[in-house]
Design goal:
By secondary structure, the chain is mainly alpha-helical. It has one domain. The protein has helices spanning 2-25, 30-38, 45-67, 75-91, 97-109, 113-141, 149-178, 180-191, 199-212, 219-246, 253-266, 278-288, 294-322, 327-341. Pfam families: LPG_synthase_TM.
């Protein structure tokens, strides 16, 4: 059943990616696109690459703080596992890289995969609220050309929807942690009419999951999480600004923040592994708000995607090879561990 569901999700993602690519390339003048690439200033690529890996390293630092209530972990294990997880997200469907990342670290540190995965839920919540902050700053600082009011309205709407989603997730986790019995019975009542046989399984999974969620309580750790979250996204946004400059596009720094918001929304949409198509369409759409031509915008989008895809994928595969692991072995071992925990 899981395989069939995964195949359907993968097929849907491939269709959406194909549609996005069709929309992008249907009216492109490839001669102008070649001219845009010919004008690329390669001097900006090296600092962008350094900042990209700095962002992943800072993710490992934040993960260390999030795991402190469970165990004091080593950055020597956290950083490679982070690279492995993002490599897997680039190559596998349905964001399975999160599970790969959890298993990779759990096997090195002797922590259960469920507990590590629970810390990654907190990790994603930290990302969500940091991006909401970026969104808020962009609202008050960005100045789009005349006629782009619709784009600004769409951003505001997207911000409200995302904020409501994250508040809902936080409320559910709070209730699940403080009032576990009540929350599980409520979930069971909601699930029963749709899939009666899944009630007990979901109950067991949620109990196992919530037992692993532990947020650091000391001020130092909380400050570390806040500061590292801001730095994670600062070092992720800065390369976008550098890529704009590499193509001779000089916009205020808030433009890179504006583009990043679009890219974050893009990865929420089902797509092929690596977010091909959706990532590019989001970037081109954001650049069009600044009246950047389609050919140059698509060239920029391709380079931004490549800078985020190939370096971490190669580095993650290298870490996987060094650890003598494979995606298939991780998948099999994770399934066996989940069966034991149930």
């Amino acid at each position: 059943m899981f395989t069939r569901k995964l195949d359907k999700k993968l097929l849907l993602g491939l269709v959406i990616s194909a549609v996005c690519l069709l929309l992008l390339f249907r009216k492109i003048d490839f001669h102008k696109m070649a001219e845009a690439f010919a004008g690329l200033d390669y001097r900006y690529l090296a600092p962008a690459l350094v900042l990209t890996f700095a962002s992943y390293y800072l993710r490992a630092v934040r993960w260390k703080f999030l795991l402190l209530p469970i165990k004091k972990t080593s950055l020597g294990n956290l950083f490679p596992s982070t690279l492995i997880g993002y490599m897997a997200n680039n190559l596998l469907p349905a964001r399975l890289g999160e599970l790969v990342r959890a298993y990779s670290l759990g096997s090195k540190e002797g922590i259960g995969t469920s507990a590590v995965f629970a810390s990654l839920v907190l990790d994603r919540l930290c990302d969500g609220f940091t991006i909401l902050l970026v969104l808020l700053v962009t609202f008050f600082t960005i100045r789009l050309p005349a006629g782009m009011e619709g784009v600004e309205h769409a951003m505001v709407t997207g911000g409200y929807v995302t904020f409501a989603l994250y508040v809902g997730v936080l409320a559910f986790l709070f209730l699940l942690r403080r009032h576990t019995g009540f929350t599980l019975s409520l979930v069971a009542r909601l699930v029963r009419p749709l899939a009666p046989h899944l009630g007990e399984k979901i109950d067991g999974m949620l109990r196992s999951f919530i037992s692993g969620i532990r947020f650091p309580g000391d001020a130092g750790s909380i400050m570390g999480i806040l500061v590292s979250s801001l730095l994670v996204w600062a070092t992720a946004i800065w390369p976008v600004d550098l890529m704009l400059r590499a193509f001779g596009v000089h916009l205020p720094p808030t433009a890179a923040m504006f583009i990043m918001v679009f890219l974050v929304f893009a990865v929420m949409v089902p797509a092929s592994p690596g977010f091909i198509g959706t990532h590019h369409l989001a970037c081109v759409t954001a650049l069009s708000a600044f009246e950047i031509g389609s050919e140059r915008a698509l060239s920029i989008a391709i380079v931004i995607h490549a800078m985020g895809f190939f370096p971490v994928t190669v580095a993650g595969l290298g870490c996987l090879w060094r650890d003598k692991l494979s995606i298939r072995n991780i998948s099999e071992n994770t399934s066996q561990e989940q069966l034991r925990e149930q």
